[in-house]
Structures are given as C-alpha cells and as structure tokens.
C-alpha cells in the first residue's frame, strides 16, 4: 500500500521509529508492509536457523526482517534475511548499509518488485555478493551472485530445486533444499 510521497529520508526514519506498522521507503515514497503467510514465516525461520548456527561464532551478523538495509538514503528495505560482516554496520542498530547476502521470500504481491526494481536497488550496494530469492509455492531457490573479473562486473544466477544442496557462497554455507523447506504446508 502506497502512502503519500515526498518524505525525506530523515522524516521517514523518524516516523518509522514511532510506527507500530513497518514501512519501506524508496525515493521519497513510503509503502506499508503486508502481512506474511505461514509458509513465508516457516521459510524465514528455517533460513534464520541455518544461518544463525553457521555464523554464531564469527564476525558476521545475521538479521531477520526487522532491521532495515539502505543505500545512500535512496531506499530503506526490510529484507526477510541478510548478513553483514562489515564493522561499519555495528554503529547503527536500526539500519545496515553493508550487507554481504540478502534473502527475500517471494510473495505473489512482491515477486515482480523483488526480482526487478528491488534487485536493481540492491545492486548499488558494493558490499552485496549474493541475492537470494526463495519461492514459497514450489521448492525453488534462485541465487544471484556478483561476479567481478578483469572484464568488469555482472551477476550470475544459479537455480536450486528439489534434491539439490543450496550453496550460499558469500558465507560458505551449504544446506539441503529440503531443510530449508522443512515444515511447509503445500497446497494440493
């Protein structure tokens, strides 16, 4: 749901701290966050569990959908999950600016935006190495990875499906896709 536009980043951050409803911000427009399904929640919990256990003793921090990611105050998004290993992200408790991995669980209402405009926004984050899109309707995970070489920079995509092991290369974690989808309630 679109709220009025014309907000400055500072106005958005002030209002967001006082609001009982989470909102995302993009170029002056503020959008209320919709509620999530049981499968969305289950996938987020399973990913959080795997990542948290893997990262618990290292320098990296893993966050759920309650902490914002921003680039140059152009956008403030609440990814379903993300990892940052940058000490500069220890300064602000509410906004992180140097994520290494971002994961979004796809919803029918957000899938096009998550795969298109949101991904374009996230690509501005120099620290971002991996963008993960998790389907909640079928066992399918899309990992988009930044590739830097002598020819420049781009993104490669790898798709994981039933029977595969997902490699989250940016954090050196491998998980069976069935573990990520454990406890899901599939529609018949």
Compact overview of the structure:
With 188 residues, the chain is α+β, with helices and mostly antiparallel strands.
Backbone structural class: alpha+beta
CATH fold-level topology of the largest domain: tt1808, chain A
In the CATH hierarchy, what is the architecture of the largest domain at level 2? Alpha-Beta Complex
Q: How many structural units, i.e. domains?
A: 2
What is the CATH level 1 assignment of the largest domain?
Alpha Beta
Helix-strand sequence: EHEEHEEEEEEHHEEEEEH
How many DSSP E strands? Answer: 14
The biggest beta sheet is recorded as: 6 strands, mixed
Count of DSSP H/I helices:
5
Strand content: 35-45%
Placed side by side, the strands forming the largest sheet appear as 1-3-2-6-5-8
Q: In whole angstroms, how far apart are the ends?
A: 30 Å
Q: What's the mean pLDDT score?
A: 89
Descriptive overview:
The chain has 188 residues and is α+β, with helices and mostly antiparallel strands. The protein has 2 domains: 1-33, no CATH class; 37-180, tt1808, chain A (Alpha-Beta Complex), CATH 3.90.1570.10. It has 5 helices and 14 strands. It has a 6-stranded mixed β-sheet with strand order 1-3-2-6-5-8, with helices on one face. A 6-stranded mixed β-sheet has the order 4-7-9-10-11-12, covered by helices on one side. Strands 13-14 form a two-stranded antiparallel ribbon. Strand 2 (23-26) and strand 3 form a beta hairpin. The radius of gyration is 16 Å and the shape is globular. The chain starts with a strand and ends in an 8-residue tail after the last helix.
């Amino acid at each position: 749901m679109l709220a009025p536009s014309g907000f400055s980043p500072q106005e958005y951050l002030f209002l967001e701290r006082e609001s009982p409803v989470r909102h995302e911000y993009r170029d002056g427009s503020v959008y209320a966050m919709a509620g999530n399904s049981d499968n969305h929640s289950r996938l987020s919990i399973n990913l959080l569990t795997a990542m948290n256990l893997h990262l618990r003793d290292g320098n990296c921090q893993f966050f759920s959908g309650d902490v914002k990611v921003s680039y140059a105050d152009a956008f403030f998004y609440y990814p379903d999950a993300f990892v940052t290993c940058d000490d500069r992200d220890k300064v602000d408790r509410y906004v992180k600016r140097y994520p290494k991995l971002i994961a979004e669980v796809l919803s029918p209402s957000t899938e096009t935006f998550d795969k298109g405009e949101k991904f374009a926004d996230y690509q501005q984050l120099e620290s971002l190495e991996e963008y993960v899109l998790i389907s909640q309707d079928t066992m399918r995970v899309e990992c988009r990875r930044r590739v830097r070489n002598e020819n420049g920079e781009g993104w490669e995509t790898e798709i994981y499906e039933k029977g595969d092991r997902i490699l989250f290369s940016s954090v050196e974690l491998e998980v069976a896709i069935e573990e990520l989808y454990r406890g899901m309630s599939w529609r018949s």
